[in-house]
UniProtKB/TrEMBL annotation:
Source taxon at top rank: Bacteria
Species of the source: Micromonospora ureilytica
SUPFAM superfamilies: NAD(P)-binding Rossmann-fold domains
Protein name from the UniProt record: Uncharacterized protein YbjT (DUF2867 family)
Length: 48
């Protein structure tokens, strides 16, 4: 499964990303770089 998460470092997004990675999904997180870091195992995109 492939998953794109917008804002994947915050509360709900972070939990979603963590669970998807745990399940072995290919995850891309796209954020503005304002809150935390993208979890390990996630492809990162950043808009500035």
């Amino acid at each position: 499964m492939r998953l794109l998460v917008l804002g994947g470092t915050g509360f709900v997004g972070g939990a979603t990303v963590t669970e998807a990675v745990r399940r072995g999904w290919s995850v891309t997180g796209f954020n503005r770089g304002l809150h935390g870091a993208v979890p390990s195992g996630v492809h990162a995109g950043c808009a500035r």
